[in-house]
Amino acid sequence: METDERENIETQKSSAKRLGDKVAVITGGARGIGAAAAKLFAENGAHVVIADVLDDIGGTVAESIGGRYIHCDVSKEEDVESAINLAVSWKGHLDIMLSNAGVGGPEGRSITSLDMDQVRHLFSINLHGTIHGIKHAARAMIKGNNGGSIICTSSAAAIMGGLALHGYTMTKAAIDGLVRSAACELGEHLIRVNCISPHGVPTDMLLTAWRRFGAADITPHRLKQLIGTRASLLKGRGSSIEDVAQAALFLASDDSGFITAHNLRVDGGHTSADSRMSYMYQDPQ
């Protein structure tokens, strides 16, 4: 088979996938939700740049999917700009930005004892990092003049009080407002801006939080079981990083081409309805 013919076949295969030949940057892509999204995007034809501070892990993930890795502290605007520039210099354009990097924080339980230095640290990564991502992705997409999809990872904690500590909750709630505001401006350039709000996903960050507050021996499997029985309308069905990655894939693809300024909840219905009311729909014994 001639080289040109082989390349044409590969191009046709790639374009038949949901993200055929699209270029994506994923912050926080070394592990957890970000790594799951990176792998899923690549499986669907995307060229993926992973931007993270976990160099060894991130580099391994990028190599495994034929992508690129760059060290990126999202609290530093120049790092995020460099990640976007890498994608553009590698493939000539940017189509997808998944602003996923985020941290929890030991800022204390009570509003009366918040450590403001720790709160500022949370904002520098969770919120400022998201601003940096939207800003520089939008610049590249506007210059490319072919639209694009910007996706930000928020949290169910931004919707329902009491699901996380105050500092984390504030940063994620701010992301929701930022997404709606940015969508208003960037829609003129056919750039869609949305966010995803997961709940109870057994990531390292959530497991660490549970262990800090008394569940020292909690495992990912046990956490998933607890979410499935206590915080989901889908009884016995806990959440996973793959659930969130699939939501990101939908918002990144043309399947969601008329969706913007939207918060896609991946929470088993927890923030929409009270599963304790399900007794109303059961026949009396």
From TrEMBL:
Q: InterPro entries from the xrefs?
A: NAD(P)-bd_dom_sf, Sc_DH/Rdtase_CS, SDR_fam
Q: Which Gene3D superfamilies match?
A: NAD(P)-binding Rossmann-like Domain
Region forming the signal peptide: none
What family does this belong to? Belongs to the short-chain dehydrogenases/reductases (SDR) family.
Q: Which UniProt keyword terms apply here?
A: Oxidoreductase
Keyword Magnesium set for record: no
Superkingdom, taxonomy of origin? Eukaryota
Keyword Methyltransferase tagged: no
Q: Which GO terms describe its molecular function?
A: oxidoreductase activity
- Write the lineage as a comma-separated list: Eukaryota, Viridiplantae, Streptophyta, Embryophyta, Tracheophyta
Q: Which Pfam families match?
A: adh_short_C2
Q: What is this protein called?
A: Uncharacterized protein
Q: Which organism does this record belong to?
A: Psophocarpus tetragonolobus (Winged bean)
